[in-house]
Specification:
The chain is of the alpha+beta class. The protein contains two helices and five strands. A five-stranded mixed beta sheet has the order 1-5-4-3-2.
């Protein structure tokens, strides 16, 4: 499964929080196996919106939706439990 290129604001967020390398590593794992245990991929509430997230590290998560081309589009990167 492919991950679409990040928007510039999300790239800036990664740089600001010094997690670009961690994100790239996790995104690669996600592309190879979206259900990999280290990602802790989950569907967010309310479930009917079909918004998902995967773990970048213990503190940060990437929030994504699935596009019609079976790609993951990252729509937000934020602190977990925010």
């Amino acid at each position: 499964m492919a991950v679409k290129q990040l928007r510039p604001d999300l790239k800036r967020y990664l740089q600001k929080h010094n997690i670009t390398k961690k994100y790239l590593k996790q995104a690669k794992i996600f592309e190879d196996n979206p259900r990999h245990p280290s990602l802790n991929t989950e569907i967010l509430e309310p479930r009917h919106l079909k918004i998902y997230s995967f773990r970048i590290d213990k503190k940060y998560r990437a929030v994504f939706i699935m596009t019609s081309h079976n790609e993951a589009e990252i729509i937000d990167i934020n602190l977990h439990y925010q």
